[in-house]
Each structure stands twice: as structure tokens, then as C-alpha cells.
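Appendix B. One record, verbatim.
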Amino acid sequence: MGSDPLNTFHAARDKSIFLAVSFIFWFSHFIYVPILSPYIESIGGKYTFIGLCLSSYGLMQFLFRLPLGIFSDLLKLRKPFIIFGMIISAFSCLGFALTDSLGWVLLSRSLAGLAASTWVAFTVLYTSYFTNQEIHRAMGSISFVVVFAQLLGMSVSGYIVDVWGWHAPFWIGGMISSIGAVLSLFIFEPKDGIHREPIKLKDLTSVMREHSLLKISLLSILAHSMIFTTMFGFIPTYALTMGFESSDISFIVFSFMIPHAVATLFCGKLIVPIFGKWLSLTMAFCLSSIFTLFTPFIETKGWFCIIQGLNGFSLGLLFPLLLGMAIESIPHQKRATAMGVYQALYAIGMFAGPFFAGILNSYMGVQAGFYFTGILGVVAAFLIFVWHRKELPYKIFRMSSGS
């Protein structure tokens, strides 16, 4: 028997609405990210305060991501959490737009972190639209939408500021996320909800004792510290001190984000089969560390963009690799718990990196944050070497001998 055309239409419509809401969700989060640190500096915020604001986004996710996921599982409902996330996103953007108060800036960025904590509900509901055989395609679709929204939002940010002023990205983000909040009311969720076994305390404690998960989570904390201190943190501020205009920030974003996205495609298909997982991680951390440490010594705009592109590619290799390695050794029945723990833990990096870099920048200048971030990459590479010191030299020797 053929499929019902009406049901096929409804299924396609449900997926389209969901992807539109997901795009709006991340677009409104990232439309102001490149100009956030320069904006806070322009209204009198010191580097320590900028670091505190940037880090509040990760802190809120560390505190709320796992509890919201568990609460959603207990209720067997996802749609209310998605609507809540969209509304909080709108409040966050409008909080930035309506005031120049540093206190409101901190509150607004914290609300953005709370909103981002609801993303787990998005992914669970979207995968319910697909059969088990289609799950990977579903995650591919939503991952593309997330990356595209981030790239587009960050790309237009500097241009919008140049034309309409500092508050314009926040107003646009607020209006678009308000539309997204209305659109989220039309997201489809089955009347009886989506059943997924909530995380149990015994599963949580057993997963937390998994050495492989904790090692990967620590490396992910360092990787997230690096990206949230550089491109999602102080790179735009530093670029403006170099002589870039606010409209030029788009070039820096493109330089970083396009290689960053391309690296995710190359990682699993080309890099890992040649070098192996651990050597690939080591090289990616080392390269990112080198490019970050080089950043304060660059004096021309062209080279600055090239270095950001190389760093974007290096960091782009890390995240999909770490994501896969986080759960590969975990039993299937505990993987949802492991992913929740992993996501909560790497949010520490989103908090700690900008926070400590902001303190260092205040006392030693903005270059200090890049030295600090570069050292984090060296620490990560050193940890991998210690954990796999027998395996890595053997792998390098085999490659150099051509065998």
C-alpha cells in the first residue's frame, strides 16, 4: 500500500516548522556574539566584567542543561520546553536592546545560557519524527541548520552595527526570536508525548565513574574554553584594536567559520582514518594552540584572517571527534545519560575559559588571554600524550615509515 499523501504532507510540514524554529533559535543567539565583547567595552565594561558576561552563558548551561533534560523526560513532554526556550531567547535579546546597564547585560547573557539549556528538548522531539534507520539523517539535517544559523547570524552582525548601531543586532534578534516563539506553538508533538526513560541516579553515578567519558569531557572542557575565549569571545575586541572596523568583523567570521564547518566534514571521512582518533586530537589541539599563540604577534589584516581560518579548521576537527568518542565506549542503554553528562561538563569550558581570560586581560592586556588559551591547547595535547604515550609514538613511527 502506498503512503497517505495527506500524512506525508503533514509530516513534511511538521519537519519544516521545526527546522525553521531551530534556525531562529540559534540565529537569535549568534547574531550578536561577534560584537558582544566590543559592545560591553563601549559601555564601560572592563575585561574582567566582559569575561564574566561571556562565561555566564556556559555557567547557566552547566547548571540547567541536565536538570531540564531530566524534567522533560519525567513529563514526557518537549514542546513546552521549546516554547520556554524561545521566549527566554526573546527576553534575552530585548534585555540587551532596551538598556545600556552592565547589570542588565549580565542578566541578558545569563538568560541566553538558560535558553540554550533547552536544546536537549529540541533534539529529542525532532528525532521522534523519524524512524530509527533515519536518525543519522535527522541529526545531519538539524546540525546543518544549527551551523548555518550560527554562520549567518555571526556574518551579518558587524555589518548591522556599522549601519544601524550597537543595539540593532539585539533588536533584530529579539524580534526574530519573538516570531520563533509564536511559530513554536505550531510545532507538532504527539498527544501522549514522547517516552524516553529519564536519567536514574544509579545510571548517573555509574556513568560518572567511566574513565573514558571523564577524559573526553576534560578535553572537551579545554576545547570549549579555547573557542569561547577566542572567536566567541575576545577575537572581535582584539581585531578592533588592530584597526579593523565593525563592518570588517564579517570577514573574520567567514575566515573562521567556513573552515570550521568544512573540518567537520573532513574529520570522520579523511583525517581519522589516516591518523587515528588520538593522534588526530593531538594534532588538532597542537595546531590550534600554535595559531592562538601567534595571534597577538600578527600586524596585518590579511594574515589575521588567515590565522583565524587555520584555527577554525583545527578547532572544527575537535568537536565532532570528541562528541563521538564521548559515548562510543558506553553501553547503549546508558548513552543518553552519558550524553547529558558530557554536555553538562563541557559547559564548564564555556564558563571557565572566558572568565579566567577576562581576569588575565584586565591585569596584563588583551594579549594575555591568547597566551592563556594557547597554553590550554598544550595542556590538552600533553594529557593525551600521557594517557596514550605507548600508542602515539607507535602510530607516528608507522606513518613516517610508510607502512
